[in-house]
Amino acid sequence: MNGRLHLAPIDTSNPQRILDLGTGTGIWAIDIADSYPSAEVIGVDLSPIQPQWVPPNCRFEVDDIELPWTYQANSFDFIHSRNLEDCIKDWPSLMSSIYRCLSPGGYFELVETTPDALCDDRTLPSDCSLRKALDYYQEGMKSAGRGNFVTPTILRERLEAAGFESVQVVTVKQPIGSWPKERRLKRIGALARLVYTAGLEAYANAVMKRFLKVVS
């Protein structure tokens, strides 16, 4: 995203309330609060793992976003979510809550990754270990009633079904590894490789043992 925190064309001169769903470590909420000091920024997550030293206009709440929301209708200018595909069982219900709580003219931006390993020149073998791991992961998440092979079409359909208008889909490549020649993509790929090498084993083990009942 070329250093941008969002693509939604929100009113950057005076945003009032911003909600970050599944905020995780809170880094996006903190960065957006620094960028828009006029806004009240709320990050929500099931786990209280966010730092205490945050901008004065940023706060965090521990809550389950799949439960009925207590926020008032039309109360946020901008709602943001990222990488929640495998966390949500009832997307239509969540979309309804988001739509209800957005103010007229407000924006919702969600960012998801396609759970597959792809290659521009189609040379990635079908028995690639990464592709196998991702296939097992998706199989396990589906058996748990979560996850979907998310595509731009699926995301658009969800948004439009909830009532959103002027839906725009932006697709970008995320390399894995530092092989790209372009400096920005090289850095993105190196960070993606770090994420995969640090977390893929833990994710795969949890899913295969809990949901696919694979015994090591």
Short recap of the structure:
This protein has 216 residues and is α/β, with parallel strands linked by helices.
List the helices and strands and how they pair.
Elements: E1 17-21, H1 27-35, E2 40-45, E3 58-62, E4 76-82, H2 91-101, E5 102-111, H3 129-143, H4 152-162, H5 183-210
Parallel strand pairs: 1-2, 1-4, 2-3, 4-5
Helix pairs in contact: 2-4, 3-5
Properties at a glance:
5 strands; 216 residues; alpha/beta; 5-stranded parallel β-sheet; 5 helices; 34% helix
Report what the structure shows.
With 216 residues, the chain is of the alpha/beta class. The protein is 34% helix and 15% strand. The protein has a five-stranded parallel sheet. β1 (17-21), α1 (27-35) and β2 form a beta-alpha-beta unit. α3 (129-143) crosses α5 (183-210).
Strand line-up across the major sheet: 3-2-1-4-5
- On the 0 to 100 scale, the average pLDDT is 91
DSSP helical segment count:
5
Protein structure class: alpha/beta
Uncertain parts: none
The overall strand count is 5
Question: Roughly what fraction of the amino acids lie in strands?
Answer: 15-25%
Tell me the helix content.
Answer: 25-40%
Topology pattern, helix = H, strand = E: EHEEEHEHHH
Describe the biggest sheet?
5 strands, parallel
Radius of gyration: 18 Å
Shape: globular
